[in-house]
Amino acid sequence: MVYTPFPMDILTAIRSAEDIVVIGHSNPDGDCVFSQLALSRVLTSLGKHVTLLNEGPFARDEIARFENMFLTEAPSSLVERNPLVIVVDCSTIDRPGKVIAPFASCRMIVLDHHSSGEPFTDSSLMYIQPLSVSTTLIVDALREALGVPLDQTTASYIYKGFVTDTGFFHFISDKVGGETLRRVSHLVDHGVSPYCVYDEMHDGKSLSYFKGVAGLVDRVQSRYDGALLYTWQTDDDGFEGKPADDIYAQLLQVEGVRVVLFFKQKEDEIDIGMRSKNGSGIDIGAFASSHGGGGHRYAAGAKVKGELDDVIRNTIEDLRSVL
Q1: Do 49 and 19 form a contact (C-beta atoms < 8 A)?
Q2: Which of 200, 234, 256 marks a domain boundary?
């Protein structure tokens, strides 16, 4: 059973609260944003005053149009009301960025599915299920526990977060597949069209975007007899959009690959995206955690200070013992 009963303290805190702030991690992906949106609808249906906070940026195509539904900083008047805070899709206190700081003294609930991280609230107010393939499905389980009926819009948000984190059904293990798919079928029964959602979340990219992706694939390097493939993006590439997911989707199909890394140069640090192949026996989330990051068994990341060449060289060397 993936979705065990919710701690009574979580249900009581939500039912008794009037003001609730829902916070997600900075540089959000679909699972984060759609978890916040779905949870907001659940809480609003209970008569709560809900504020969505996320410092952004909303750089991914599939979430950009929802940016105006979020505040990027907390109004002082809201902080003074001492709201209940619910943090979603965050495994460490630093993941939300600066938006969480004003609420340090507030009661805080954490809903998350990452396999690594550090607790930052009372254990009775944490619901962390690493076997859940997305945080949106945890929000759906909370909806059930609170007795809130499912509607089509909420179902759509939950489904979109689910397909984001499973790569449209790719990353679902046999240990949780039956329960997960039964829950997803319930979303489809409430009006979600998988075909339409796929089109909505993939259409609209420019030809120049795909030419840019082709350039990043062209510079791919192979190490450890093909077990590791990696590429990188620099500030000088002038690339628009978020190519990482398309890079992973292509490179994880290469024969013999076990780990794919994507290095992205930023102003004062390097983002390292990490993916391990199903069946590789590698918990890339544990590796990311040992480098100050975190994530899931097959998908994780970290931010590292340093020059791009040095970070690439050191990360590859650290992976030697893992591979």
Answers
A1: yes
A2: 200
Q: What is the pTM of this model?
A: 0.89
The pLDDT score that the predictor gives to residue 203 is 85
CATH number, residue 37:
3.90.1640.10
Report DSSP letters for 213-267, one per residue: HHHHHHT-EEETTTTEEEEEE-GGG---S--HHHHHHHHTTSTT--EEEEEEE-S
Q: What percent of the chain has pLDDT over 70?
A: 100
Q: Three-state DSSP class for 25?
A: coil
* 3-state class (DSSP) for residue 120: coil
Phi and psi torsions of 119, nearest 5°: -60, 140
Q: Is the pLDDT of residue 56 over 80?
A: yes
Nearest-angstrom CA–CA distance, 297 and 279 = 11
Q: Are residues 196 and 216 in the same domain?
A: no
Q: Are 88 and 128 in contact (CB under 8 A)?
A: no
Which pLDDT band, with edges at 50, 70 and 90, does 10 fall under? Answer: very high
Token pair recorded at residue 306: 């340093």
Tell me phi and psi for residue 264, to 5 degrees.
Answer: -125, 120
DSSP 71: B
In a domain, 1, yes or no: no
Give the pLDDT mean for 63-75.
96
If you write DSSP's letter for every residue of 306-323 in order, what string do you get?
A: S-HHHHHHHHHHHTTTT-
Domain that holds residue 282: 207-318
Tell me the per-residue pLDDT of 297-308, one tens digit each, with 9 for 90 and over: 888 899 999 999
- The label of the residue with tokens 């109004």 reads 75
The closest alpha carbon to 106, from 23, 42, 162, belongs to 23
Q: Name which of 136, 142, 143, 189 is nearest 164 in CA terms.
A: 136
In a domain, residue 123? The reply is: yes
Q: Which residue has tokens 């701690």?
A: 7
* Domain endpoint, select from 171, 200, 229: 200
Give me the pLDDT at residue 117, please.
80
Per-residue pLDDT, 238? 77
Are 35 and 57 found together in one domain? yes
- 226 pLDDT higher than 80: yes
